[in-house]
Amino acid sequence: MSGDTGTVPTGLAVHCSGITKYYGVGEAQVQALRGIDLDVRTGELLMLVGPSGCGKTTLISVIAGILDQDEGSCLLFGHDIKQFSKGELVSYRGSNIGFVFQSFNLIPTLTAAENVAIPLLINGMKMAPALLEARKRLSEVSLEDREDSLPTQLSGGQQQRVAIARALVHNPKLVVCDEPTSALDGETGHKVMEILKKLAVGSERALIIVTHDSRIYEFADRIAHMEDGRIVSVDAAK
Amino acid sequence: MFQVALKMLFGDRGKYFGIITGIALASLLMIQQPGILISIFSRTYSFITDVALPDIWVMDPMVKFVDDSQPMLDTELYRVRGVQGVEWAVPLYKGSQRVRLSDGQLVSSNLLGLDDATLIGGPAVMIKGRLADLRLPDAVIVDEAGATGRLAKPTTVPGGKPTPLQVGDILEINDKRALVVGIARAGATFQSQPIIYTTYTRATSYALAERKLLSYILVKTKADLPLSEVARRITHDTGMAARSADEFKTMTFKYILNNTSILTNFGFVVIVGFIVGAAVTGQIFYNFTLDNLRYFAVFKAMGATDKMLRRMILLQALLVGFVGFGLGAGATALFAAVTRGGSGLSMTLDWQLLVGSGIAVAIIVLFAALISVRKVLRLEPAVVFK
Predict the structure, then answer these.
(1) Is residue A79 part of a domain?
(2) Per-residue b/e over B37-58, b at no fewer than 16 CB within 10 Å?
(3) What is the CA radius of gyration of chain B?
(4) A124 in contact with B, Cβ within 8 Å
(5) CB-based contact (8 Å) between A66 and chain B?
(6) The domain that contains A164 carries what CATH number?
(7) How is residue A218 annotated by DSSP?
(8) CB pair distance less than 8 Å for B299 and A118
(9) Mean pLDDT over residues B301-309, rounded?
(10) Residues of B with CB below 8 A from A92's CB?
(11) Which stretches of B171-261 are DSSP H helices?
(12) What band does A10 get if pLDDT is binned at 50, 70 and 90?
């Protein structure tokens, strides 16, 4: 990889410095991020909270390497992803980052096990061993009896658990979640967070969750409050 | 990821069947219409093909195609026989005569008069009777399509079906008696008229009184002389046109091609088939990709490379192309099998046609894949969070 810096303190998963992002051009230009500085440590669950349009999703997109920032740098485990070539970035993302989405984004024509196997298939594993690994992950989220079910045959909570298994199946170093509980009722959301906290947070891994859902704040190690493209405060969870 | 691509394709059954139906219909049009066209064109010279034995056809220089025989004097036959390099030469009468059926109906038919001695030019396949029976008094042989079709015996029962001609039935050609002694198989002709075979002498007696009745002279060349040289000598010595069977077929084919709008009409349908196939298939396949755009973005976010996504879409496109083409080609082959041998609509299905339409289908699906790949590759993976 060409983005090694070697200047990041040990235990730092994400180190963002002066991240700025603009959308549009000319008079229609909007500044979505205004010089964000943020660190996320390994073993930590950080929540990004704030009103709609404050830049939370833009920030995790930049951190996850699926959106280019206009200014500033973002180091992931010591790698400046801006310095990666397109191929290196895609490969790094495939190996090191897991995603959980608000609307689950499970492929409707694939079974739960096949959906979970996708990151492994993308990383070049054959279908049979990938399915074996996927089934193990499904059992960790207590869905061993639903591995052959299609997403439409699963409840919202079950679908999100499949999505969590998919995000973790390739042992990524960073897991980013966008509103993982907003489509779920309170009790189910709580269960999903328990699973996420138990499985996704580890000494070598960090978890960033974007959320509006104040009911799950209790699971965070720290909460970063955003407003108008800036982080206004970072608090340790109560 | 190829298995994932296929599951995505098969999972959306409505679009999958829509795409393969579009390709199947386009394939059917692109194979069937040229197939029918080839069949029609081959009919223009089927008579020359059926009369397989002679090397050279001698005719009046004014003849433009095989059905345009310009009668010659019988004495021309003897002049041709005298040309160096001619092994043998026999007369052939070919003309349209009207046959009266038992209910008084007149049917225009192709009357062929074969050399009395050798019967060269006769049908290769006899279904009933023998070719030699043409030597019986008033004998004629009728082709199968004519016997079961336009020359079939009219029914006396209103709404009933006509009875096919049988050996022993009597026809009336230009007020003269004709006894059916055989039923033969002949290549369908361009004009789809019944074919009646008889001897040259009898044919000229059936024909209306004309001074010139010799349509063609069929010539076999000697083995030691090139065909082109003998043809040149015949033309030089007699003033008649002498053409090989292939030259005569080409001349007939070109005449029909240049003097009818068949090629334009069929070509138009083929082009419409290609355009509609491309438009329908491209649109449905593109819609299929659009419907799955979110999932392609998920794959991109998860680390799928452009190459991987390109291959997935290409696989989906090639698969629908392969299945759709298979169905279209299969349906066309079925059509060809059902219509084979009849005097009506039929088609020729050859490998060149299949390869050509296969290439056209490949172009259609690659075009569909191209516009879909373009959309997916331009997709920002960040849309997964929207």
Answers:
(1) yes
(2) bbbbbbbbbbbbebbeebbbbb
(3) 29
(4) no
(5) yes
(6) 3.40.50.300
(7) G
(8) yes
(9) 90
(10) 303
(11) 200-206, 227-238, 245-259
(12) low
Q: A178 — contact with chain B (CB < 8 Å)?
A: yes
Q: Over the stretch B79-98, which tens digit does the pLDDT of each residue have?
A: 999 898 899 999 999 888 88
Q: Look at B7 and A99 and tell me if their CB atoms are within 8 Å.
A: no
* B331: Cβ contacts below 8 Å, ≥ 6 apart: B24, B28
In a domain, A1, yes or no: no
Per-residue pLDDT band for B102 (boundaries 50, 70, 90) equals confident
- B304 — contact with chain A (CB < 8 Å)? yes
Helices B351-378 + B306-339 axis angle, to 10: 150
All structural domains of chain B with their residue ranges: 2-44+261-385, 73-239
Q: Are B107 and B150 in contact (CB under 8 A)?
A: yes
- Count, residues in chain A: 238
Please give the residue range of the domain that contains residue A222: 12-236
Q: Nearest CA to CA, how far is B6 from chain A (Å)? A: 10
B contacts of A93 (beta carbons < 8 Å): 301-303
Chain B contacts of A178, Cβ < 8 Å?
A: 385
Closest chain A C-alpha to B303 CA, distance in angstroms: 4
Are the Cβ atoms of B4 and A99 closer than 8 angstroms?
A: no
Q: How far is the alpha carbon of B326 from chain A, nearest alpha carbon, in Å? A: 25
Decide if A7 is inside a domain.
no
Between CA B129 and CA B182 the distance in angstroms is: 4
User: Is A5 contained in some domain?
Assistant: no
**CB within 8 Å: B304 and A101:** no
Q: What is the pLDDT of residue A208?
A: 92
Q: Can you tell me the distance from the alpha carbon of A128 to that of B287, in angstroms, rounded to the nearest whole number?
A: 31
Contacts of A101 in chain B (CB under 8 A): 298, 384-385
Number of compact structural domains in chain A: 1
pLDDT tens for each residue of A106-133: 999 899 999 999 999 998 899 999 999 9
B294–A110 C-beta distance less than 8 A: no
Taking the C-alpha atoms of residue A88 and residue A85, their distance in angstroms, rounded to an integer, is: 5
